[in-house]
Please model this.
Amino acid sequence: MKDMAPKIGGTLYVLWGLLHILAGYRVYASASAIADPGVAARIAQGGWNLGLIAIFAILVGLKLNWNNDRLGYWLNLGVVSAADIGFIILVLVPGYIPLKVGLPGPILWLLAALFSTIGLKQKASAPGA
Model:
């Protein structure tokens, strides 16, 4: 039972990734509605990048966070935190999307970070660690 925290954390990073694949696709697809081709291309690139970050989070969550790996902890903590902090500051705080739509990602991120941290702390305090 004590090994559940990293598995929960890894699962939450996977869920964060799945949510953001969908979000990245929606951003990418919405770019075609923009009249200025340069702006449309830049927005499409943002959707593409979000999708790649999401795939990264899923792979690290499945392979490394699930197994309570220290490198995986720092990789997903750093990359997902950077993505969500930017989202919070640039999109949520100014109110460009409603909180009920925008909060699931940050909530998943914070819970994933919390459970991954608990798992790593348990590993460090285990006898022989």
User: Anything to note?
Assistant: The first helix runs from residue 4 to 30. Residues 4-123 form one domain. The CA atoms of residues 31 and 42 lie 8 Å apart. The chain has one domain: 4-123.
